[in-house]
Structures are given as structure tokens and as C-alpha cells.
Amino acid sequence: MTEAPESAGPNGRAHTRYTPGTPCWVSLMVHDMAATQAFYEELFGWEFQPGPAQLGPYVRALLDGQEVAGIGRLPPDRHLPVAWTPYLASDDVDLTAETVRLCGGTVGVGPLEAGDAGRLAIGSDPSGAVFGVWQAATHLGTGITGAPGTPAWNELLTFETAAVAKFYETVFGYEEKRAAGPDEVTLCLDGRPVAGVRGAGHALPRDRGPHWLTYFEVVDTEEAAERVTGLGGQVLVPAHDGAHGRTATVTDPEGARFALIQGPC
């Protein structure tokens, strides 16, 4: 469910430049990078290489030689939640950041340069959910999708969809399509689904509040969930059939939430 497939094959789809507004990258900030890398290496088969020095201790995860995600280290004096953050593509991150502010969101980091890779900002929507904005230069974003171990979908879990969906529509130009659930919408670009928004009301976890959830493709959801627990993570929502495939919600050993999804998105 991403953008601009360049070629298709048994190992997934390669990608070129992403249309503005499309989720193009996911990044995780943690306390123990070595342990986190070991967890995801065992779970998804990722390898790692150093990322831009301007971002501090940071690595890019590779699958079949293609970049799929980033992992960085949190400053020891910053008590921030450990969470996967999706980045939405932009042709002008400074203009997007200003629009975020004008529409009631906040910008907590940037806009700033990430070496010759590109330019980024990290902000939050009016409900408090954190997301990134990426203006590509040499680093276009996730290089491959449609294969086990790659990001497959991003969904915003929030209290209710109406106001927050309007924020993202105004900032990124999405069209809104009602989904199957009682308070679910799909955000589309040119009729193509790119992300979801789900209103959870009082069922939203109190320890997290509104947040983005990244889904990673797997061959077998139950088997992958078992491996998560064996590697020191937790299963929050056991495997079940959903709108896009068989899914489970899990955490890594530091508590970062993500979802596993079996089948095409």
C-alpha cells in the first residue's frame, strides 16, 4: 500500500520517489541500540549500516540490500516514549512544517538537514500523535515493500477520526474514504489508499494516547508473534483476521508497539 513501484519480483517491489503525503519511511528511537538491532535482525532478517552522522547514533536497516527502516538512540537525558514513527513525504518540509503549525499541530524537531540524505521535521497532530516529514535528496525512503520484513501499512489510532482526519487532509492533501469500522477512515491520494485512521474512543491505551501504528509484513502471523515473545517482546493483541489480512499487535523488548500482518495489504 505504498507508492511508485519500480519493479516487481519474488523479493518484493523496489521503489523510486514517493508522492507527497505518502508514508515513505519508518524510524525507531531506543535506549539500547545493540539489543534492538539483535531483536529485529532475528525477527525480520534485517542487516544494518550507519546512517547520517547528523542524526547522532543511527543505523538503517537493510533487507536484501534495500533500506527498509531506521533505528536511532535516544539521548540518555530525554525520557521520551519508545515508538515507531512514520515519515510522510514532502517536496518542501519547511512549508509542510508551517502548515502543520497553522492547522493546530506542533513541530518539535526541525526542519533540519540530515546530511545529503534529505531534510526532515518531526511533529504531532492536534491529538498529540507523533509523525515525521521527509523531503528526500539522496535518500528516497523505504527502498522495498511487498516482502516479509518490510513496512506494509500505517494506521493512526486516536480518540475519534473527524477532526484529526481533517488535519491530515489539509496538511497533506488526502481524500477521505469511509472504511468498514464504525469510526474508521482511509486516507487516499489520487484514489489510492496510503494510510488509515481509526477512532478507538475510551479503548485507546491510556499509557500511549493517540499514536501511529506501523504494520510489518510477515509470512505467518502466529509464528512471527511467537518469535516476538521468544525474543523478549510481548503480544498485546493476538493474531486475528482484519480488513487487510491476519494481524497481531506486539511490542519489542523496549516497548515499541508495531503490528504484524500476513497477506497482501
Automatic annotation (TrEMBL):
Protein's UniProt name: VOC family protein
InterPro entries for the chain: Anthracycline_SecMetBiosynth (IPR052164), Glyas_Bleomycin-R_OHBP_Dase (IPR029068), Glyoxalase_6 (IPR041581), Glyoxy/Ble-like_N (IPR053863), VOC_core (IPR037523)
Entry-linked Pfam families: Ble-like_N, Glyoxalase_6
CDD domains: SgaA_N_like
Protein species of origin: Streptomyces anandii
Top-level taxonomic group: Bacteria
Entries under SUPFAM superfamilies matching the protein: Glyoxalase/Bleomycin resistance protein/Dihydroxybiphenyl dioxygenase (SSF54593)
Lineage: Bacteria, Bacillati, Actinomycetota, Actinomycetes, Kitasatosporales
Domain VOC: 22-136, 150-263
